[in-house]
């Protein structure tokens, strides 16, 4: 059993692509603790199917920029979009350097697929398990670094802070119940989205927005918390639990949506929110709980090579995609809002960073363009690490000790209750912001 030290140079909360890429880019002489709530494979990064965007060539820049802005309803932060697109080739090069195996054309060049909202193919992929391919390679690179310690089953319950800085976290070991108060010169929240707070979601159930609730309690601003993306196509089932995603690249490669009479009713390659609205509208008109997705327009070999995971999952659920349509329904998928951060991952609280899906740097605007999320998480996590490296200074230990002494430890005596409170606070804030927005829209 690992016993944690009292102090690390950097503590990172989350072992998805954001947390791991941040850890890998912190200076190797700095000690880095990376924690996650359960096992490391229970991150949404691991589930990503479709792929990761890359600017294929310079003359696509404006088109990629426009696609991202159009999907985001032009509410995106243009500086963040620019940084993401310009950094995309470096991110893919880094991943290839860690051993990630992206699909290639016959001549060895990267193969690109297309998804909804993209004017042209620019998405790198590994079958339909791109997230697993990326995350496992980042994880093994991180595990091979002597300065990085990855400890699963440790849940952050709070941050240690005062009005002027963050000094670390309060965390609980899920295996033995031990409560830790850990100091760090820099704390990075890379704790993913909020899908676990929704009944129907493609996300892991453990991702309930703890970091958001903690920030809200400490008065650290969160932005656009009601900007929740609903994915148009998850496999319809009456079973409880996580919803299985049918990747958008299936439609990018030619699959079509059909109503109860097996008639097409929308352009399948519009941005997600538009396709979702069209599906919901059709379900209401038809009085059905799902619409059909027909993968048979895609050549059989392409389905076998590109989507083996989807084929197998559908078979397990009793559907043969080569012979029949599959029932699909929209479900919660992604979180565009989050802890306010700049394009270096810095929050408004000194020494506290937020990267990946838990943060909001405005890159996605009101609606994320497909396959921009892994890219954004990786890029801005690297930038956060670089920012930490360049301005590095240790915490003031007397201030940190005072902030620790001021903690009310009774708050953490019932962690299940506390985490449920966090989940409820996130849901309430989402509802409050959504209501305020629709009232503003009506005025
Ligand atoms: C089914 C599915 C398919 C997707 N496909 C794509 C795709 O093809 N392309 C794309 O770009 N994006 C895709 N996405 C979105 C993308 O995977 C995520 O947005 C991205 O991986 C988020 O990475 P992250 O590192 O921010 O968070 P995550 O990978 O979700 O990691 C969150 C981490 O935080 C930890 N954590 C949370 N709370 C705590 C706490 N209190 N204490 C300790 N640890 C905590 C968790 O244990 C976990 O390790 C998909 C998402 C899903 C669900």
What would you say about this model in short?
This protein has 443 residues and is α/β, with parallel strands linked by helices.
The CATH H-level superfamily of the largest domain is FAD/NAD(P)-binding domain
Beta-strand residue percentage:
15-25%
Biggest sheet record: 7 strands, mixed
SSE ordering: EHEHEHHEHEEEEHEEHEHEHHEEEEHHH
Helix fraction bin = 25-40%
Overall SS class: alpha/beta
As a whole number of angstroms, the C-alpha radius of gyration is 22 Å
Low-confidence stretches: none
CATH topology of the largest domain: FAD/NAD(P)-binding domain
CATH architecture of the largest domain: 3-Layer(bba) Sandwich
Distance between the termini: 58 Å
Element layout with pairings:
Blueprint lengths: L6 E7 L3 H9 L6 E4 L8 H4 L4 E2 L7 H11 L6 H20 L25 E2 L5 H14 L4 E4 L2 E8 L4 E8 L5 E11 L20 H8 L4 E2 L4 E8 L12 H5 L3 E3 L13 H15 L4 E4 L5 H7 L1 H9 L9 E10 L2 E3 L11 E3 L4 E2 L12 H18 L6 H9 L9 H28 L1
Parallel strand pairs: 1-2, 1-8, 2-5, 8-15, 14-16
Antiparallel strand pairs: 3-4, 6-7, 7-8, 9-14, 10-13, 11-12, 12-13
This protein binds flavin-adenine dinucleotide.
């Amino acid at each position: 059993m690992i016993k944690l030290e009292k102090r690390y140079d950097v503590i990172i909360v989350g072992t998805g692509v954001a947390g791991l890429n941040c850890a890998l880019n912190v200076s190797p002489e700095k000690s880095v603790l990376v924690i996650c709530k359960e096992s490391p494979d229970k991150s949404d990064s691991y589930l990503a199917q479709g792929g990761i965007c890359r600017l294929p060539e310079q003359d696509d820049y404006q088109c990629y920029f426009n696609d991202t802005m159009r999907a985001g309803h032009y509410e995106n932060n243009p500086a963040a979009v620019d940084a993401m697109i310009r950094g995309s080739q470096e991110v893919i090069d880094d991943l290839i350097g860690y051993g990630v195996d992206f699909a290639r054309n016959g001549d060895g060049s990267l193969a690109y697929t297309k998804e909804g909202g993209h004017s042209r193919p620019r998405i790198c992929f590994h079958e339909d398990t791109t997230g697993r391919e990326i995350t496992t390679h980042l994880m093994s690179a991180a595990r091979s670094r002597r300065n990085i310690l990855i400890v699963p089953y440790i849940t952050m319950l709070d941050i240690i802070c005062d009005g002027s800085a963050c000094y670390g976290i309060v965390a609980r070991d899920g295996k033995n119940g031990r409560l830790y108060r850990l100091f760090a010169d820099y704390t990075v929240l890379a704790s993913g989205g909020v899908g676990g707070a929704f009944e129907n979601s493609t996300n892991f159930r453990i991702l309930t927005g703890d970091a958001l609730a903690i920030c809200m309690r400490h008065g650290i601003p969160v932005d656009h918390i009601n900007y929740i993306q609903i994915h148009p196509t998850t496999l319809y089932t009456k079973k409880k639990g996580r919803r299985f995603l049918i990747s958008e690249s299936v439609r990018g490669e030619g699959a079509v949506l059909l109503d109860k009479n097996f008639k097409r009713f929308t352009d399948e390659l519009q941005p997600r929110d538009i396709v979702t609205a069209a599906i919901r509208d059709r379900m209401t008109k038809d009085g059905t709980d799902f619409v059909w997705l027909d993968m048979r327009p895609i050549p059989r070999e392409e389905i076998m090579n590109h989507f083996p995971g989807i084929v197998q999952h559908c078979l397990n659920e009793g559907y043969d995609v080569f012979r029949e349509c599959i029932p699909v329904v929209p479900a919660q998928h992604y979180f565009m809002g989050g802890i306010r951060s700049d394009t270096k991952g810095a929050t408004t609280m000194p020494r506290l960073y937020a990267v990946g899906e838990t943060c909001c740097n405005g890159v996605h605007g009101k609606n994320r363009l497909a396959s921009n999320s892994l890219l954004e998480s990786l890029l801005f996590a690297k930038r956060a690490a670089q920012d930490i490296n360049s301005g590095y200074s240790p915490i003031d230990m007397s201030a940190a000790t005072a902030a620790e002494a001021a903690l009310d430890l009774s708050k953490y005596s019932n962690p299940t209750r506390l985490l449920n409170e966090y989940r409820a606070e996130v849901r309430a804030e989402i509802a409050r912001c959504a209501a305020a927005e629709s009232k503003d829209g009506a005025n």
